[in-house]
Amino acid sequence: MDYPLALALVDFLPVLAMAAGIALLVPYIARTAGPLAGRAALAGGVLVVLGGLLKAVWKLLVAAGGPDVAWLAGVQFYLFGPGFALLAWAVLSGRRPGLPGLAGPVGSAGPPSRPGPPFWALAGFALAGVAGALATGATWPLLIVTTVCATILGVRLLLLSRHPAGRALFGFNLLGTYVMGLLASRPEQTIALQWVEETLNTLIWTAFAVAVQRLTREDVPAGGRSELTGETPSPLQ
């Protein structure tokens, strides 16, 4: 089956949206959970974006009549599993003032918080997925790791968001990833179905980027935003 060039180009859109969302998320995590969690989020984000980018490059090569470099597509879950595990651990380490069991950003006053999960737990989970994939020659162990860790990430961000619109966007992102999994598992991948998948995937990660942008604005007090913009805070804010 020929792979249309236009469809291959569209495959870069969700990668760009994902990269934008992660670029906003990393400094938020560093601010609310500390530099170690920020570095973990950065490393995880790079792995996830790289996995999506390599898959998009593979599709573009195939659509353009170039060589079928299969490893560009096959390496995706080897990057997604550890990447989402790092992001999940980092976001679980994040703290937010005013929520039960969560404290404010590092150095701020707030109620005592429960410590996040130990790093070795999610790191070991990801490594077990990699080992399982290498041992079986299949990607399903890494698919499990990716699904679990992406779910943890999505649920945690949804709970951190205080605005209904932000929660709805994170919820759409989370639900959409499950729908994408169901669509991608269909044996008959027609061109029409792939257009639906790429359109949905773009919407999913655009929602993620917008939701993270809203979340980062929630974390900055109105007075802090006015200092950044030079505006005088309104008494109605």
| C-alpha-based Rg, rounded | 19 Å
Mean pLDDT: 84
Helix content: over 70%
Uncertain stretches of 5 or more adjacent residues? 97-113, 222-237
Termini separation: 56 Å
Number of strands: 0
Count of DSSP-assigned helices: 10
How many separate domains make up the residues?
1
SSE string, helix = H, strand = E? HHHHHHHHHH
Question: Major sheet: size, sense and barrel closure?
Answer: none
Helix/strand-derived category reads: mainly alpha
Which strand-content bin applies to the residues?
under 5%
Q: What form results from the Cα inertia axes? A: globular
Please describe the structure with a list of short key phrases separated by commas or semicolons.
disordered C terminus, mainly alpha, 237 residues, single chain
Can you offer a commentary on this structure?
α5 packs parallel to α7 and α6 (119-136) runs antiparallel to α7. The protein is mostly helical and 237 residues long. It is globular. The protein has ten helices and no strands. The protein has helices at 5-10, 12-33, 35-63, 70-74, 76-92, 119-136, 140-160, 164-184, 191-219, 222-229. The chain has one domain (5-101, 117-217). The N and C termini lie far apart (56 Å). 74% of the residues lie in helices and 0% in strands. Mean pLDDT is 84; it is low at 97-113 and 222-237.
